[in-house]
Here is the input.
Amino acid sequence: MHEKPMVEKALIAPSTYKLQIETINHFAAGDIKKNKLIMDNIPDTPLSNQVLLAAKQGTPLVTFGKKQNPGILVLAGVHGNELPPQIAAVKLINKLAAVKTNITIHIIPFAIPLSTEYGLRSWKGQDPNRTADIFGTPTNNILSTAKKNNIKYLGDFHSTRPGGYPGRLSVLCSETPCMLSFQMADFIEKETKSTILSFTKAGSIYPGALEDVFNIAEIPAVTGEAMSPHGTIMPGSIEASLEQMEAFLKFHRAYKVSLQIT
Ligand SMILES: [Zn+2]
Here is the structure.
C-alpha cells in the first residue's frame, strides 16, 4: 500500500504524539489565527491547533523527547514579520510528531506571538534580535529557558528581504568562543544552497543578537536566513527555511527515519 504522508498520519492519530507543549513569555502571548498568511500555510492539524492555542498563553515551547535530557532548540519568529521560518517550524513540528527522534528536540515556532499576530518586527520599539543580552526581554527569556532545559545547541531561523542584510539564503555563525557554531553552519551550507557567513568572534558585529548571546554563553548557535520580503512569503522560501532546519537536525543526528514527505 502506498504510504500516507506523515502529516496525515499526525491527523489520524493525535494521541500518539510523544511531545509536550508549554509556554514561556506570557507577556508576549498573541493570537496567531489573526495572521492570515500564517494560517493559510501551516498544516491544518490538531497538533497545529494545540500550538496556536498555546501561543495565546505565551511563547510556545514544543518538546519531543525527555525534557531533562540534553537537547537542541529550533527557533523561529524572533521577528514577527518574517513568515517563512515560522510556517516551516510548524511544519517541522507536524513532521516530527510522526517520526522517532534520537535526541530531545525543542521547537519554538513563534518566539513572540504578539508580534506575529500583528506582523510586527520590533518589540516595544526595539529589535528583539539586539536585546537578547538584556534581562527580561523575550529573547533573553529564551536564553534562560534554554539553560533551564539543558539545551545544548540553537538554530535560530529568520528570513531576509532582498536588498537587506544578509539579503540572501545564508547561514550565520562565529568561530569563537564556539567552533561548533562554525561547524554546524558549514554542514548546513553543504546540505542546502545556503551561503555561510562566518564571523571570527561572537557578538563583535551585532551585540545582543540571539545567536551571539547563545555562543557567548557557550551554547553553540547559528542563524539561518531564507529569502523573502518582510510580511510576505516568497515562493520556495518556506521550503528553504525547512531545509535549513532539517540540516540542523541532521547535523545532530536527531531522528532515525527520513523526514521527507510527498
Ligand atoms: Zn530576522
Observations:
- Confidence is low (pLDDT under 50) at residues 1-17.
- Residues 6-251 form a domain with the Aminopeptidase fold (CATH 3.40.630.10).
- The chain has one domain: 6-251.
